[in-house]
Amino acid sequence: MTAPRSVLIVGESLAGTTAARHLRTLGHTGPLTIIGAEEHGAYSRPPLSKVVLKDPAADQTLGLVLDGIDVDVIRSAAVAADTRRRTVTTADGRQVGYDALIVATGADARRLAAPGQRGELVLRTLDDARQLRARLAHAGSAIVVGAGFLGMEVASACAARGIPVTVVDADRPLERILGDHLSAEITARASAHGIRFIQATGFATLTGDPVSGVALPDGTELTADLVVTCAGEAPCVGWLAGTGLADRLGVGIDHACATTVPGVFAAGDVTYLRGDGTRPDRRAPFWSNAVAQGRTAAASALGLPPPGPAQDDYFWTEVAGLTVKIVGRLPLLGEPTTVQGSVSDGRALLTWSQADGTSTAVAYGLRRPVAALRALAATSLPPPP
Ligand SMILES: Cc1cc2nc3c(=O)[nH]c(=O)nc-3n(C[C@H](O)[C@H](O)[C@H](O)COP(=O)(O)OP(=O)(O)OC[C@H]3O[C@@H](n4cnc5c(N)ncnc54)[C@H](O)[C@@H]3O)c2cc1C
């Protein structure tokens, strides 16, 4: 493949800025343009739920800088793409051509409000976090819909402010990703921190207009000053309508971050790794993947070999003051091998053997460099039968 003259990246966040930096590092000297929809430019999202909800000073520390690299930034949403003519149209009426396109438009929060129902709160952007922080300052009670990592982080922020908070989900806290064993421990820890959990028998619906509560399938109705939906994310693919690039899961990519359309690559939360008959399609909307895929998409756009795997299985979260770092495949099914410490004491190093022969290493409330966890995951053997 001949190296492309111009590269266009759509999405100015972690995957997009990583790709831009890597394109220049790899020697791309031609035109490089980023189209981004957010007026704040690129910033880091993990601190939104961990520190921004508590501390307004944190707003100033989130920027993902482009390190003075030579890139044109257009701050307007992409509204359409024509992959035959190789152009992208923006909301402010520009038409930007490209030789290679990197799709990095991430995801938005999945919403549960009925059409026309006002006042649903979510947490995906800096503006969402600011709005939520302002509401937390005056809230006497809160409900969080969704007990995944984001829901538990938001509930932790409520509890840290002394706000009584109820988390509602059909599955126990973090069970879908961390499995039974850690879910039980985390539920107990969260409860000790004042986070109440209600296991619903199905989907909760938001009540009130503006939203002021939830209704559970068994008829229970709950109300609170603050109701926050943390029900997962929806890939931002509306602007790709008609291109055949996207489906329900997002933009399908292979190990080189290539899509099914020549000259188009994708990275980060907008993507899923296409299955190959032995493996199912797999979404992994985490920080380390956006970085790994930003680099891979940059290399592939220049016709170079991928610098590493297109999915990097490192993830972390913070629940009720406890940090959990994980390297390896999720979910964590069955019992772990305890390498050090004990989960009930809130400090443990654990490994899980996965069905595909890989291992997952977890530092639970224990400070461990990610490199050490990677080494542990790489060397752990399955426990004896
Ligand atoms: C509150 C929160 C906490 C998190 N905590 C963790 C954590 O602890 N650990 C972890 O591993 N991961 C965490 N994540 C996930 C992590 O932040 C994401 O995986 C990462 O941000 C993905 O980066 P991305 O660049 O692919 O997408 P995004 O960060 O979603 O960025 C996509 C960008 O594209 C823009 N865009 C969308 N559509 C268009 C369009 N049509 N035109 C132009 N621009 C567009 C968006 O405005 C956005 O700026 C967290 C996420 C959130 C929201």
UniProtKB/TrEMBL annotation:
SUPFAM superfamilies: FAD/NAD(P)-binding domain (SSF51905), FAD/NAD-linked reductases, dimerisation (C-terminal) domain (SSF55424). Its cofactor is FAD. InterPro entries: FAD-oxidoreductase/Apoptosis (IPR050446), FAD/NAD-bd_sf (IPR036188), FAD/NAD-binding_dom (IPR023753), FAD/NAD-linked_Rdtase_dimer_sf (IPR016156). GO terms for cellular component: cytoplasm. GO terms for molecular function: dioxygenase activity; ferredoxin-NAD+ reductase activity; oxidoreductase activity, acting on NAD(P)H. Keywords: Dioxygenase, FAD, Flavoprotein, Oxidoreductase. The keyword Flavoprotein applies. It comes from the Bacteria. Residues 6-294 form the FAD/NAD(P)-binding domain. Its EC number is 1.18.1.3. This is Benzene 1,2-dioxygenase system ferredoxin-NAD(+) reductase subunit. It comes from Streptomyces chartreusis NRRL 3882. The lineage of its organism: Bacteria, Bacillati, Actinomycetota, Actinomycetes, Kitasatosporales. The gene is bedA_2.
